Amino acid sequence: METDDTNQSWANVYKETTGESSRSPGELIKLLLRVEKVKASNAATLLTIDRGTLEKWIMALDKRGIIGKEGPQTDSYLRLKPSFIERIKSLNARKSAHAEDTTNKINSLDKRIHDLGQALGSERGRIAQIEAEAKGMLAIISDSEKRLKNKAALLDDAEKTLREEKANLDEEVKKTDGLLTGLTQELKKEREEKSSLEKQSKRVRDDISGLQAEQGVQVGSDEALSLKETIRAERQKRSVEEEKIKKAASELERRKQVITKQLEELELRGKAAGAKPAVAEDSNALAIQLDKERDMTEVVRKRLDEEEKELDAREKVMAEKEKELKAETDELGVFFEGGIEIKLTDSEIKEKCAELESRQANLKKREEEQDTLEEEDKKYRKRAENISLRQAELEKKTEYLSRDENAYEVQEAEILRKESEILKKKEAVAAARRRVEEESLELDTIEVDIKKRQKTLDNLHKSLDERENAIKIDELTKKQNDRLREINAREAELQKKIESLAIKEKEYEGKKSELVKTESELLEKKRISIDEIKRKTDELSSKEKEYEKKKAELEAAESEILKKNMATDEMKKKMEADKAEMEAKEKQLTERQKELYSLKKSLDTEEKTIYSKELAKKKRLQEIRDIEAELEKKSTELSSKEKEYEKKKAELEAAESEILKKNKVKDELKKKNNAIDEIKKRMEADKAEMEAKEKQLTERQKELYSLKKSLDDEEKTLNTEEREKKERLKEMNALEAQVKKKTGELSKKEKEYEEKKIELQAAETEILKKKQATEELEKKRIKERAEVDLMERQLNEQLMKLDSIRESLKSREGGSKEAEPAKAKMVSEKPPKKPEAGLEEIEAMAEKAKKKKVSLAQSFRKTALEKAKTVNAKQELVENPNEKPPKEIEEAPLKPAPEEEPPAAKPKEEPQEPETKPEGVPAPEAPKEKPSQEPEAKPEEVLPKAAPEEQAQAETPKAGENRLISLLGRTGAIKPEDALEELQVDKDTLTEWVAKLKKEGIIEVKSSFMRGTTLMLTTDALKKLKEREIDHTVDTIRNELQRIRQEQKKLSDRK
């Protein structure tokens, strides 16, 4: 801001003090900085300004506290105030401090960035290792999951087979239930038939008793015997049928027990498996069905027992009645022993026969019914055999399943162990991921800080570049203006010289006769010129040596620049390698994203499976609750059955007491006691089974409670996992967005890099084309130079001829003084033709050389312009590839440098003072006037005039810079290392010289991949060197001609 204010203030002062003048008050300040104290009059003369403008400047600067006055007011001494000087010093100190701070900050940032890059590389290596471990773990998990899936498929197959077998068993149980119902119905029918038969037997007995009483005892006794036999046969048949029914019922019970055992085993296995609820459900359903069947069988047994009891009671009654009948028959036999015969009527006998026939028909029907029952029994036996075979197959299958289940249990144990290990590893991976994420967040923050700092640095660099560009533009405009002024001055000088040459030529034509008089003087001056030529040759040899040294130094510098280029190439390779690494990392990131997406899918599937498992568990809980309700109902039924049993027991005890009172059949009582004991045992066994079932139910309830707890824990873990997944998804989305941004930036940079590469390639092709053109031009120049050399040789020959003429003239003068008037007449009448011809040829050669010089200069200009365009474009692309230079900077170096006349051809007037002079540089002294006979000739000063304030330095460069220029003039191009060896200078000094000469447009630095960096003079400098050499030769010839003409004048004047 201070600089802007100062510039505005300067502009205001400039507007106040001057109108359209090119001078400014800053020049007065610069003059006072160079010279501490100066008078106002001297300042006006030095600055070539009116006193009024100077007074205005002084007033304006005095108001601003910059200048102070001392001494008389008319012509006071001017001096800068110490406060202003201190301000300048503080500003310089601030600038230097700011530059040091910026450099230190940049170095610290570079170090930090380097350290961060190393840390990033190490952390990325760790991340890669962790990812590799995680991938290995995922592969193990996937293998275990595949194995579990295969085992689950096997279990599903086994469950399907079990379900099919259970369905078959259910069908068989249904069939057995149908058979039982059929048998029960048949028993009911038989019991009804028994009751009907008993009624008929009672009727028959009543009839027999009546007949015996009426007609005789014999017929009654026979019928009674036949009836007894039929009753016995029927009882035997019924007993056989009842035994068959009991056997079938026992077989059914046995099979049901086997099925229950199998189901219990299946339940236990299902509990051991813990992962197959379908088996447990099926087993529970089968258990319920078996309990129902047991209840039905118990009911049927009870009914059968009741029916058996009823039959036993009836048999007892029948036995008693038979005993009574026997007793009656015995009595009747005793009573009818005397042979009393009872005669029945025919009608009664016929009726009795019809009744007997009807009874026989009924008996036949019953026999037929018994046959059908036997056939049904056979069918039932076959079915029972089939059931037994199926049970055997089921037992085999259960054995295989038990073996598979044992193996499955072992595998499940291994799977659980592996799952625990996998969970531990997953936890480790999650912890590592958390660490990586934290570190990545830290790195992101660091990267953000670095980017901010880089932005600030970029802004600083941009501001510095803008300032440098503005300074360069100002310098270039100043240089161009100075060059234009110099060109105009030189053109005026050249016109004056041309006019003077024309006058001198006219004088030469009028004074050719004076050559004869000056021959003796010519010989003496020739000796002097030979001595001067020897001295100059010695100087040239010394300069050549210096040039060789500078060439060596330049070669050394070129070698250093080569090394630097190699380093830059290595850096480029590293950048390309880093780019490849970035691409590989991007690929890894994409792969990681794919893996994470697959993990996400797997997690979603796991969530779905867990949700399905939860639903299945809820269904199980509902089923368990239903089973518990059914068990409670069964327990109530059992309690009611127990009460009934107790009632029946009480009834049986009462019956036993009655039987004991009556003291009837003890054997029957014993049988009944045994049956009762068996029933008691059965009841106790049923009680034990009920207690076992109750224990199983309690255990099942405990298991269900534990399952509920585990489900709740799983739900909690699932909720936490879902939260973590959501957080991970958010982080993944953020990472994906960052990766997309980075990829976009990289793609943009790659596009810019490719565009710049294409531009560089196009520039290189243009440079190659222009190189070819320059080579062709150089060939033309070599040819022209050879022609110039020929011209110089011819001139030397003409000079030799002139020397010979002079010697002949001297010999003529050495004759008698008496022959002088004759000689004068001869000279006046016949002037020597050879010298005239020689001089004319010399002048013609000089004019040709001048024309050639002009043509060469024009060709040099064209090539220099083309080369400067290409080189500047390439340098700007290489130096700042990201920023395009402004048009003013691009066009400034491409403007053709104006021709510079050699210093010998300068006018002998005092040079003008420069418009602006740098701070700290003393005022240039006015060049001293030199005699016309000794013109200035300095071909080694090739420095182009950069600015008028640097004119003194350009005209009189330092010895080291001159050495470097002479070395480049000898070698043409040299490496920095060779230049260091030739010049024997430090690297820093050589870099300073190169930078200075490069700014002035004398030296050009070229870099290539194969050759490295080379230092060489610019085309303008080479052109000026050659022009100055030609000018030097032409000027020497002209000076000699002038000297000869002057000598001829002197001779003519003497004569």
Output the strand order for the largest sheet.
Answer: 1-3-2
Range of strand content: under 5%
Global outline: rod-shaped
At the fold tier of CATH, the topology name of the domain at 2-80 is Arc Repressor Mutant, subunit A
CATH architecture of the domain at 2-80: Orthogonal Bundle
Q: Give the averaged pLDDT, no decimals.
A: 69
- Largest sheet data: 3 strands, antiparallel
List the helices and strands and how they pair.
Blueprint: H1 2-17, H2 25-34, E1 37-39, H3 40-47, H4 51-63, E2 67-70, E3 77-80, H5 82-214, H6 217-273, H7 277-335, H8 346-510, H9 519-662, H10 666-813, H11 820-829, H12 833-879, H13 887-891, H14 951-955, H15 959-971, E4 973-974, H16 976-983, H17 987-999, E5 1003-1008, E6 1012-1017, H18 1019-1054
Antiparallel strand pairs: 1-3, 2-3, 4-6, 5-6
Describe this structure in words.
With 1055 residues, this protein is mainly alpha-helical. The chain has a domain at 2-80: Winged helix-like DNA-binding domain superfamily/Winged helix DNA-binding domain (Arc Repressor Mutant, subunit A), CATH 1.10.10. Helices cover 84% and strands 2% of the residues. It has 18 helices and six strands. It has helices at 2-17, 25-34, 40-47, 51-63, 82-214, 217-273, 277-335, 346-510, 519-662, 666-813, 820-829, 833-879, 887-891, 951-955, 959-971, 976-983, 987-999, 1019-1054; strands at 37-39, 67-70, 77-80, 973-974, 1003-1008, 1012-1017. The strands form two sheets. A three-stranded antiparallel sheet has the order 1-3-2. Strands 4-6-5 form a three-stranded antiparallel sheet. Helix 9 packs across helix 16. The longest helix is centred in the middle third of the chain and has 165 residues, at 346-510. The two termini are 80 Å apart.
